[in-house]
């Protein structure tokens, strides 16, 4: 039988337009303030993280006033899930930037355009996924199996990432698009031997986008297990993703301490799958306060467990995060790709 989801008030086109304009305005402000490609320090990243989190929470309050507590509760649940999964994104982004020796001054630009791509991909996934769940009841079983399997792989196969330059999408782009295996300032394209070619920074952007595409499937599926209201799902994703760049620069120096976070994320994905299963049984959908409680307790416990386990093992981590340690390489000269242009 079809998946039973909360009944929400319909969202008019003007609400979509208003949110799209607000997101575009925030991205424009961010781009304007970082147009000089300066290295983002911990203090600046922390301030911006606070701004993005405040914007996300404020939108939830507006949603509560506009459409009620049930809808706002599903938004906050989706926002927390996406925010938690974003931390795992940060791990992989740090790996990509380190692998390709991306100069610190250019990392924000890659993440900025990566976020725009993430918003577009998620919007497409959300509409397709919600339509499938509403039209074909059996797709719920596929979502359940996918979420539980993803949770299992995150718990027991975490850290087995494919090297960035071996990503199939990155390899395809390098075959199709002429590429110069070096950085040329902050440019994604340049001219070499009279022809227009992509720079190594463009390859890095593709690696980030391809990685986020995989994460998008996980996060969108997890939120669709809570609600099929496309407006709520996309806004939860959008406001969580807007702070992804600042989150990276805040946490990049502390990532080694989050050694058990992947267990918490695995539990959340499995919980989303179980929640979707229960919605098809006499038990019905779980109360939103219970869902929020599980998310907060799970993430809080995994972070606390990680910090306690790694306490005193690396005294330089706090200083590293303050100095913004990731990939502080020289920005004045081109940096070759690892192992050359493969």
Characteristics of this structure?
342 residues, mainly alpha, single chain, disordered N terminus
What does this structure look like?
The protein has 342 residues and is mostly helical. The chain has a domain at 13-131 and 159-258 and 314-323. It contains 12 helices and 2 strands. Strands 1-2 form a two-stranded antiparallel ribbon. A hairpin with a 2-residue loop joins strand 1 (189-192) and strand 2. The longest helix is centred in the middle third of the chain and has 32 residues, at 104-135. It starts with 12 loop residues before the first helix and ends in a 19-residue tail after the last helix.
Number of helices: 12
Give the ordered list of helices and strands: HHHHHHEEHHHHHH
Class from helix and strand fractions: mainly alpha
Mean pLDDT across residues = 78
Quote the distance from N terminus to C terminus: 50 Å
As residue ranges, the low-confidence spans are: 1-8, 315-342
- Radius of gyration (CA) equals 20 Å
Shape: globular
| Biggest β-sheet: strands ordered side by side in the sheet | 1-2
Helix fraction?
Answer: 55-70%
Please report which band the strand proportion falls in: under 5%, 5-15%, 15-25%, 25-35%, 35-45% or over 45%: under 5%
Main beta-sheet annotation? 2 strands, antiparallel
Instruction: Tell me the number of strands.
Output: 2
